[in-house]
Amino acid sequence: MLKVAWAHEESRDEAAGMRAWQGLGAAQLLRSERRGDTAALLMEHVRPGVPLARCLTWPERDEVAAAVLRRLRVPADELLGADDDPVADSTAPAPPSFRPLADMCAWWADSAARRHAEAVPSLLPSGLVEHGLGLFRALPRDWDGEQTLLVTDLNPGNILTHDGPERWLMIDPKPYIGDPHYDVLQHMLNDGERLVADPGAFADRMADLARLDRRRTRRWLLARCVQEAGEFGDAASAALRLAADGVE
Fold first, then answer.
1. What is the average pLDDT score of the chain?
2. What CA–CA distance (Å, rounded) separates 116 from 94?
């Protein structure tokens, strides 16, 4: 399967990430090349390749997503040499090191702050915006646990059925290094009904399945929902509910 795409900033390290995850729950990368703003990845043809978004009930999808994330949780100190691609075009520049999650969060928080300031009517109370975006900047920096390689965009459309030993494989990562709690968030954002109905319980379930801390997962979800408010339909409602439930 050949993927040719615009090499935008968020997906800059996609090929290096796919190589680092070989055999750990990701589709196999056979070759990669980048020329200017165009990236080409030659990957295995995942068969039957049905997206998780078209399979199972939502609670069953939780279990699959968490299981995939557990397999993909590669410690940063084991990534030496992950950027060495023996099959890449020898004329291509060496890929950069994986970027810290804190960089992405600071960039997104700045963008969200401008969106909130310009919104009429206000998307959320100003105090909640300040607190949520502050959390979004602080959480990746204050994490003192193991730094891992993150997918950052693991959603039901990026997990495919596979007829090999690993039943599910991940595609289309946007790799960063940082707090593994972040990686359950995109899955939750894709189930708007549960996200609004009881975001705290949803966060607790994903934390338990992914073997993460419940309180920290709730705080990350609050921060992400404030950051996404106005961009993602259910995020503002979920942020209000989490704040009302005492998430700090």
1. 91
2. 38
Non-local (6+) Cβ contacts of 139 within 8 A are: 105, 179, 181, 182, 216, 219, 220, 223
Residue 125: partners with Cβ closer than 8 Å, 6 or more residues away: none
CA distance 56 to 40: 32
Instruction: Enter the pTM of the model.
Output: 0.90
**Domain range for residue 28?**
2-244
Domain of 41, CATH number, reads 3.90.1200
Burial of 52 (0-12, 13-18, 19+ CB in 10 A): buried
Q: Measuring CA to CA, which residue among 141, 130, 156 is closest to residue 104?
A: 141
Q: What percent of the chain has pLDDT over 70?
A: 93
Q: Does residue 67 register a pLDDT over 80?
A: yes
